[in-house]
Amino acid sequence: MIKMHSDFSSKESLQVTFTPDAIELLNRLKVQGSLVVHISDGCCDGTVPNCYLQDEFYSDSNDVVVYNEPPVKVLIPKATIDRFKNNLVIDVHDKNVAGFSLEVALDKRFYIRSE
Known about the structure:
It is a single chain. By secondary structure, this protein is mostly beta strands. The chain has a single domain, classed as Sandwich (Hypothetical Protein Aq_1857, Chain: A). The chain has 2 helices and 8 strands. The longest helix has 10 residues, at 20-29. It is globular.
């Protein structure tokens, strides 16, 4: 698993971990370019991670980078960070595959859990 710690003034730290399945899927997707995984706090997306090409994703000042190991960045809105404990795990499943995220074309879907 890949792990990275990020420090925030409002939270001591958040460790982002990718499962082996998530790493494999990211490796398949990164051939298209650098990636952004965005965890939304919106009503439509909930907290489902959506993966986009970095060149096609526009963020605002509400998003915080919690993981940045090229070619992948993970962003979370400031207001959402406190929903997670100290460890955010990004995994993959193949259930209810729908949405605008890049992995949907491969019949996969990222999901998160907090540990």
